[in-house]
Specification:
Length: 138
């Protein structure tokens, strides 16, 4: 019997481009998939096939980014122009955001683009440090 390799779910190039487009850094991806950086790197260069689990995780993060953008945009739609002028978009992810800081930057910059397109206002982006371990409640 001849063994044939099953085709990858997507090419390494597609994986690399989609991962970058949503701001998912290689370390966050590797940690989430419980693989080394070396294994993750091989996926994007095509030296290792992109399997169903990897494709599913990438889709999950893409969906999370798009869903968060939609949720935040719906909230912002209810603000008045005066409120938008005082708005600051924070690029530091909230504690409940599991997909890494790069993906949160994508969320905030996309929201900024949407606000500007709708109102001509470009809210500033600001990085705010999260609470330190000592400041967090138990």
């Amino acid at each position: 019997m001849v063994k044939t390799r099953r085709p990858a779910m997507m090419s390494g190039y597609e994986f690399h481009i989609r991962r970058q487009a949503i701001g998912l850094d290689l370390r966050t991806f590797a940690n989430a998939m419980d693989v080394t950086i070396s294994v993750a790197s091989k996926l994007q260069t095509g030296r290792s096939p992109v399997n169903r689990d990897v494709a599913a995780y990438l889709q999950e993060v893409e969906d999370a980014v798009e869903n968060r953008i939609a949720t935040e945009h719906a909230f912002l739609d209810n603000l008045k122009v005066g409120d938008l002028k005082r708005l600051v978009l924070v690029t530091t992810p909230p504690d409940d955001w599991p997909h890494g800081p790069g993906t949160w930057v994508v969320v905030t910059t996309r929201l900024r683009q949407m606000i500007h397109a709708a109102s001509g206002i470009s809210p500033p982006l600001e990085e705010r440090p999260g609470p330190s371990e000592a400041e967090r409640p138990d």
